[in-house]
């Protein structure tokens, strides 16, 4: 599969490149665009402040420009937290999208969003302060109305960005389980 993997608000950290390497070792082609032009952050607050200074429209534009040269190949859009929100927006707007992989995040769904059984997989901590249960229920129903085929995996006790080994949220067991399920999901899309 061809995968466009967007980073979280922490920027293009080693955890993102490690994830790309894991996916490439399984035979996938992965692009990891640097939407923050080389900047990385030690706290989510710093990253969110920088993201807000860039602005949502500019960030989305950068994501679209990163994906555009590869979208004709039929991408799986993927991302971590903020990057997952960007991936969701791009996948719902790309009729060639092969799948959507959301790690630690979701986004609003446009009322006119429509996809044809787009395979979607979400992996999220439970509870997650950025993805509360009420929000996730509404999101799940909205994605279903848009025509997506959604699977949700929750990881009790894990922190928000539990797949990033360089952060306090890291949960080795939950991260391992996530990557095993993700690899199966991507394999299922190859058929």
What does this structure look like?
The model has no long low-confidence stretch (mean pLDDT 96). 41% of the residues lie in helices and 18% in strands. It has 6 helices and 6 strands; from the N terminus they run E-H-E-H-H-E-H-E-E-H-E-H. It has a 6-stranded parallel β-sheet, with helices on both faces.
Q: Categorize the overall geometry.
A: globular
* CATH architectural group: 3-Layer(aba) Sandwich
CATH domain class = Alpha Beta
- In total, how many domains does the architecture comprise? 1
Order of helices and strands: EHEHHEHEEHEH
Q: What is the averaged pLDDT score?
A: 96
Which sequence of strands runs across the widest sheet?
A: 2-1-3-4-5-6
Name the quaternary structure. single chain
Which key features would you list for this structure?
191 residues, alpha/beta, Rossmann fold, 18% strand, globular
Short note summarizing the structure:
By secondary structure, this protein is an alpha/beta fold.
Outline the secondary-structure elements.
Elements: E1 2-6, H1 14-25, E2 29-31, H2 44-54, H3 56-67, E3 75-80, H4 82-92, E4 99-103, E5 119-126, H5 133-146, E6 149-156, H6 172-189
